[in-house]
């Protein structure tokens, strides 16, 4: 019994002392630069297009909600550790198909994911790889590739992301990603503006796409620098409010 206890303690100490990879160090610095520990106790409200969102994410739990009005009334979608729930005028809707639940969940999760970047890059399912340094618009960047484990990676575990993290500021100024749900595609995002609210940095983006939706993410920087990406939309968060909660 004592031997087993000592073995467990030794293994725990070994894991705790394992050196961080270069990718982990760079991502940790980026999270610190964008908001650090404040992410873990922040409830964030903002408007995006015709929806109002409220986002909370800590190491142990999360809850994302969006609200809007349509022909059915006042709609509220909630995605949390327990699953997804839609209410209309306060009444739970239990007739949604699995396909619709999946689509609504992905939609809510996608907005929350990008609004909280780079905080989510330390989620357990994330696999980070350092691809080295590069230069974009005359500025130096670390290039980080992110993929996801199938276990815990959600419906879109096979998506791929690239993040350009400035070597000086540690800000995530550009990203590219490929996705396979809802028809699939690939995007490149460039920060268009940023603001800091209660110690957390929020970024707006120009959302661009290539002509070929099957373009590898590794080719997106070259296409961007050659001016061969089309502006698809603008990602702007408005009326941002941050409430620190326990």
UniProtKB/TrEMBL annotation:
The keyword Signal applies. Residues 1-23 form the signal peptide. InterPro entries: DUF6503. It comes from the Bacteria. PROSITE patterns: PROKAR_LIPOPROTEIN. The keyword Signal applies. Keywords: Signal. This is Deoxyribose-phosphate aldolase.
């Amino acid at each position: 019994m004592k031997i087993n206890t000592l073995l467990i303690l030794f293994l725990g100490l070994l894991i705790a002392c394992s050196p961080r990879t270069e990718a982990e160090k760079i991502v940790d610095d980026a999270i610190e630069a964008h908001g650090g520990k404040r992410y873990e106790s922040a409830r964030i409200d903002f408007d995006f297009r015709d929806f109002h969102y409220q986002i909370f994410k800590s190491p142990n739990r999360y809850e994302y909600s969006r609200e809007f009005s349509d022909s059915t009334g006042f709609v509220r979608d909630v995605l949390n550790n327990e699953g997804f729930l839609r209410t209309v005028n306060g009444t739970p809707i239990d007739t949604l198909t699995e396909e619709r639940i999946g689509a609504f969940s992905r939609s809510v999760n996608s907005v929350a994911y990008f609004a909280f970047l780079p905080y989510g890059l330390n989620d357990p399912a994330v696999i980070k790889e350092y691809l080295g340094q590069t230069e974009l618009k005359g500025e130096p960047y670390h290039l980080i590739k992110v993929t996801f484990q199938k276990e815990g990676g959600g419906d879109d575990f096979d998506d791929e992301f690239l993040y350009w993290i400035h070597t000086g500021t540690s800000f995530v100024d550009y990203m590219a990603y490929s996705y396979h749900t809802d028809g699939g595609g690939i995007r490149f995002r460039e920060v268009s503006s940023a603001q800091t609210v209660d110690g957390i940095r929020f970024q707006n983006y120009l959302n661009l796409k290539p002509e070929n939706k099957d373009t590898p993410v590794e080719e997106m920087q070259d296409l961007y620098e050659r001016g061969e990406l089309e502006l698809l939309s603008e990602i702007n968060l408005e009326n941002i409010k941050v409430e620190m909660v326990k």
